[in-house]
Amino acid sequence: MRYRLITIAVLAIMLNAAPVAFAQPQPQQQQHLQLSLVQAQDYASLHNATLQNASLDVRRAEAAKWKSIASLLPQISAGVDYSNYFGYQMDLGMMKIAMPPYASLGVTTAIGLSGASIIGIGIADISKRMADITRENTEQQVRDQVKVLYYSALVTEETIRVLEENLASLRTLHDMSQRSVEVGVAEQTSADQLKVQVGMMENTISATRRSLEMIYNTLRLQLNIGTETEVKLTQSLDELVNLASAEALLAEEFDIEDNRDYRLLKESTELARRQIALTGWSNGPTVSIFHQYNTRKYFSDEATMNMTPPNMLGISLKVPLFTSGVNTMSVRDARLSYQKQLNTLESTALSMKVQYHQLVWNLRSALESYYTQKENVEVAQSIFDNIAGKYEYGVASSLELTNAGTTLLTARSSYVQALMDIVNAQISLEQLLNK
To answer: For 26-52, how does the pLDDT look when each residue is reduced to its tens digit (9 = 90+)?
Structure first.
């Protein structure tokens, strides 16, 4: 049945989320959570481990940016020394100079400037913007995964409810058939066929319940909560299914500049461009300026000779003269990398425009399929009810009833899949449009 498609999707999300989620220590959890869809998404935005790591990456990028800025600001260091020559005197022939114990204090202020360090600040700023976009992307992906799981849980619960109603009907028909056999007006094979159908329906319900538990466990991973916490979904499918919003999405214009993946790639391309300048200036001149202040305190009244200047200013300029072509080749490599990024940016823009038209087509097709499958379920249910009524009066055979039941289950399965197709297609298009 097509419920396997939902199961496969859930497994994929579990495998992607599990390593990160289990790596984090679990906070103190509530034993019961009642969540609407928006509340579930907001909860995941606050507690999801992957999103927390993305937020930490933003803070790290911010720290790296200020580290680059701080490297261009004056650096001040201080040192204190103590020396004791134990009464030794320097003998200069005609005179002796005492060398009493002393302590010295030195303060050095230095600043170094180069083109590479200045460009490095711009690169750090780009990295910060990329981290921000990545965090936004991660948050949207987490919220979208929660939405898919929320819908999947509701759809599966509704499926179980319908299957249980059908099971109750089959059991009733089986009991009626068995009583007919006992009074001799029906054959045992008819009752046995219905008994098999009852068993198959029970197995289907059990498998669907296992799928539902897997969906809830995957949702717990996204919410970063333990299995001991019961999750109660407070909204129904009727509240959430908004076909009007899905249809309105078809009329949205695609502005590629709003797409986060494209913005991230643009920042990466700008980063490659800055790398050309950074590589060129890495072999440029470096200017260093420093000032030293020194003072010395002698622990004696003896005459001595102090040759330590209290202030000193120094300026240094270093210019590389010959690198055997290493810098030239490095700049060439950086230019080629930048050209490669430009090609990738252009091809990605074209690919996204094609993807937009494909996603619009997918959503339109999913809506059309949904309306068709909805009507198909109504027809299949009507046929099943009609044949079940005839079977009660011995007009229809058990084979006809079995076939009608199978057709109804297939129709409901197709309807469920059509509903999930709308959700998935809508989410994919919203991600591309940054909605």
So the answer is: 444 457 889 999 999 999 999 988 888
Residue 47 domain-assigned (yes or no): no
Evaluate whether residue 348 is within a structural domain: yes
What span, in angstroms and rounded, lies between the C-alpha atoms of 4 and 8? 6
Residue 162 contacts residue 378 (beta carbons within 8 Å): no
Instruction: Provide the token pair at 45.
Output: 């935005």
Note the pLDDT of residue 30: 57
Give SS3 for 321: coil
Whether residue 359 contacts residue 433, with contact meaning beta carbons closer than 8 Å, is answered with no
Does the residue 319 lie in any domain? no
Cα torsion through 215, 217, 218, 223, rounded to 10: 120
| Cβ neighbours of 388 (radius 10 Å) | 18
Total domain count, the chain: 1
For residue 367, give its domain range.
242-284+326-435
Q: Judge contact between 29 and 226, C-beta under 8 A.
A: yes
User: Mind listing the pLDDT tens digit for each residue in 283-341?
Assistant: 778 888 989 999 988 888 776 777 778 899 989 888 888 777 777 888 888 899 999 99
Helix (H, G, I), strand (E, B) or coil at 86: coil
- Residue 392 sits in a domain whose CATH number is 1.20.1600.10
